[in-house]
Write a structure and sequence with these properties.
Distance between the termini: 57 Å
Oligomer: single chain
Number of helices: 13
Order of helices and strands: EEEHHHEHEHHEHEEEHEEEHHEEHEEEHH
Structural class: alpha/beta
Low-confidence stretches: 395-401
Helix content: 25-40%
Number of strands: 17
Length: 401
Amino acid sequence: MAEASPLYETYMRAPLRFVRGEGVWLFTEDGERYLDFAAGVAVNSLGHAHPHLVEAIKAQADKVWHLSNLYEIPGQERLAQRLCAATFADKVFFTNSGAEALECSIKTARRYQYSKGHPEKFHIITFEGAFHGRTIATIAAGGQEKYLEGFGPKAPGFDQVPFGDMDALKAAITDATAAILIEPVQGEGGIRTVSNEVLRELRSICDENGLLLILDEVQSGVGRTGKLFAHEWAGITPDIMAVAKGIGGGFPLGACLATEEAASGMKAGTHGSTYGGNPLAMAVGNAVLDIVLADDFLPHVRDVALVFRQGLAALKDRFPDVIEEIRGEGLMLGIKAKVPSAELLKAMRAEHMLGVPAGDNVIRLLPPLTTTVEEAREGLHRIELAAESLGAREPVLAARA
């Protein structure tokens, strides 16, 4: 009888043990090589063991690891300045995770309304299918029953409306509404993209009603969709934005970005973090920006994404009994399966390729942003083999009929 694990049984882990990574590849204890198009759930934005990131963390490790925010940390100032220069933001608060970045975003929005003399304005409108983290506040914001069950009453102040239903959103606005919170692309919810038109309408609604627009770009940000942040495709800017995952390239790092006006209520003592903004995280975050902000980086992401997306569309046409729809933007893509998505994911793993399960019977494909065209084609080949193992090809004669 196998010995019981000392770990919490909160994960359904695949029986794979990886001990080394290089670029888009992961290697098991037995030396087997897997194509990693999961990237730690969109975290390893520059792949595994990127030399620039490795050198940055090694150099900082020789100096100082942790100081706390009792003192000034030069790396924080530099990373914050670079983020502000590249975005809408004037102010940054550093965290260790996406959930913490969302908590800070929620508190920033509520505190803004409070500081303007409206303590009653603490409600935030969110959308069905959203995922904003696993803290008590963020599971309430996400509103999914499977994450709320068993943890007591839902934290108050979150009013959820159907995804894409603008009439329901407008009807949900009351004198107690402080902000609207949305992911430009729902990740865990099944790679559901919010249209540019809807994002622009949300910006207008917030402006007309004195609300703050909060964007959750934890998964869609830092180049994942081919722009530095996904909202840029719509030509709008938020008031507050939560960032994490890709900004650390694999090191725990998040950030809450805000305009000076939106952050005006966050005074000394209103928020804090022991580890947030530590020197190791700042060294890695700055190293990530060195790469991502280079002139040729985002065009490369868009070029590879085009090849990958077109290849996935071809596979959908070839295997209509396996693949129902291709979703997403850039290198944040999803396969909505006609078979149970767990079966397709298992078939991909049999071909030594990794993806990420999501809601709505979708498998997320989140390759490192450094993936080459050749590596994208290798991924397409492995997905093709997985689809072949699950269903017959579309007959050529039927396709001509």
